[in-house]
Write a structure and sequence with these properties.
three-stranded mixed sheet, about 35% helix, about 210 residues, alpha+beta
């Protein structure tokens, strides 16, 4: 009986039928996980790149507004902000744009004793893409409310200078693995020089003091 058992075990060790199927079944979950991980990371990276391009587009379009008499300064209003946001939001296609929030602000650089150069928000406006794809007026983030003080980046620290800031936020929801990663907040902030360092004035308001 022991001899027969040994022969059975010997035949079992030499048997190869079905080994490939077993190996495939064991490796399949790993391959699927790696595949969807690559897809999720790729889509997230592409969405982040689109967000960065969108942020630069918002301030670039605002900085290209025409100079108007009598002072030949650029002027902006709520309708212009909506138009700029509408054009910029199209950059996100084919990726999700719902929930996208775009904030545009004008910053004036002031010199204060003991504080060095500070940036003061002259005006700001924000738009968000609603669930139906339309743009809605939303409250600006606390750091960009009118009169708020912000840090001035290198290259913009010139007293009396003015520049624009675009702050864009989007929540990335991975199609696969959302239960593991949850929603991922993407954000990009871009300072942008206005024409000749002059203020882009909000229509109907005076230019902000530079001192």
């Amino acid at each position: 009986m022991i001899r027969r058992l040994r022969e059975t075990l010997h035949r079992f060790r030499r048997a190869t039928q079905g080994s490939i199927a077993i190996e495939f079944a064991m490796s399949l979950p790993v391959m699927i996980t790696v595949y969807f991980g690559v897809v999720t990371l790729g889509n997230g990276f592409a969405t982040k790149q689109r967000l960065e391009t969108l942020s630069r587009t918002v301030v670039d379009l605002a900085g290209r507004l025409p100079l108007l008499p009598p002072n030949y300064t650029s002027q902006i209003n709520a309708a212009e902000v909506t138009n700029i946001a509408t054009a910029a939001a199209a950059i996100m296609a084919p990726y999700e744009s719902r929930g996208l929030t775009m904030t545009l602000a004008s910053i004036v650089v002031q010199s204060q004793k003991g504080s060095g150069m500070i940036g003061k928000v002259c005006w700001s406006a924000a738009r968000s893409v609603a669930a139906d794809g339309t743009l809605q007026v939303v409250a600006v983030p606390a750091q960009y409310v009118e009169g708020a003080v912000v840090a001035v980046p290198e290259g913009y620290r010139i007293p009396g200078n003015a520049y624009l800031v675009s702050d864009v936020e989007q929540v990335y929801r991975p199609v696969i693995g959302n239960a593991i990663t949850g929603d991922i907040n993407l954000r990009d902030t871009v300072p942008w020089p206005s024409r000749n360092g002059m203020q882009v004035v909000w229509q109907g308001k005076a230019a902000c003091p530079t001192t």
